[in-house]
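subagent[fold] <- orchestrator: predict structure for attached chain, return tokens only, no commentary.
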Amino acid sequence: MVIPATGVILAGGQSRRMGVDKAFVLFEGQTLIERTMDVLRQVCGDIVVVANAVEPYAQFGCRVVTDTLPGFGPLAGLHAGLSEMHTELGVAVAVDMPFLNPALLRAMLDAAEGWDAVIPALAAEVSAADVKRSRAKDLDIHPLHAVYRRTCLPPIRAAIERGDHRLNAFLPDMRVRYFYADEIRAYDSDLRSLLNVNTPDDLKQASQLRA
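subagent[fold] -> orchestrator:
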């Protein structure tokens, strides 16, 4: 079932630890960008790719935007992708997540009513105060496997304008519905949807997981 939402793929990282552009790394016979698109097309009616350059992605027949706010990493990439949406809701994912689960993404979209964002959180409990003083990885939240409403755009821009590079910098100003581990396991028993592959060793371990 396709939902009126936009899939936003953040593919603009430097891929220094992988050694090559992660978007075009092969996993089970597909590049990671193709694999990500295939899942999002099962969920969303439109796809936007945020990348460092447009040309490598022209072959995929989707809209591609570049980050217009250099130096702010994934936060600026998220802003660029959400700005390009023609829908109220977007599913934002990193390109290096080989086990994306369409049923889980649909469940997160379904949970978005009345919220600005729906974000996986594996910590026992996350409060706005926790988010304000901590990094996303310290709280085990996954803001690049999340649902965002267009209402997030002004707070993201405000965070960038005050020089805050953190990906969770805007969340204290938002109504956030955290999607906890027990909810995720109803669709993904071992939480592998949240796995990133940043290095060749990560890629090898992911391949073994699938086997």
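orchestrator: received. Logging for downstream: The chain has one domain: 3-210. DSSP finds eight helices and nine strands in the chain.
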